[in-house]
Amino acid sequence: MSIPRSALFLGLAGVLPFLWGALTVLYDPLAMWSQTTLGSRFTGPYVQLFYGAVLLSFMSGVLWGFATKAEGARAAAGYALSVLPALWAFFMTGGGADAAGQSLVIGFLGLLLLDWQFWRRGLAPSWWMRLRGLLTALVVICLSVHLVV
Known about the structure:
This is DUF3429 domain-containing protein. By secondary structure, the protein is mainly alpha-helical. The chain is 80% helix and 0% strand.
């Protein structure tokens, strides 16, 4: 089954803050405009870090929703696993932009493993891993820009 268009478009729209952050790292005039017009929180790695923590928390809610499809011990395990991305974001995104960026990269890669576990158990839609693989790759690439520049 193919990825529903609405899920694909909204998922790609969710990558835009990461892309914006990467572009403002790579292109100084855009960074200067962004800082002057939008403020430092919406420029460079800072927009990525703030939004990344929010997105990992959001994805915890998505996984929690998948866990509701299970029963008994399997549901309990799903609920326990579903809170890990939010906890990771809360505890691991301090310590400066580089450390937080590295933690978010690890967090999104870990989230992909959780996505796969829920999908493998039939709790996520059949197209889920195609969407999550694409979005995770884009997010990790964008987050990595400020780590290598």
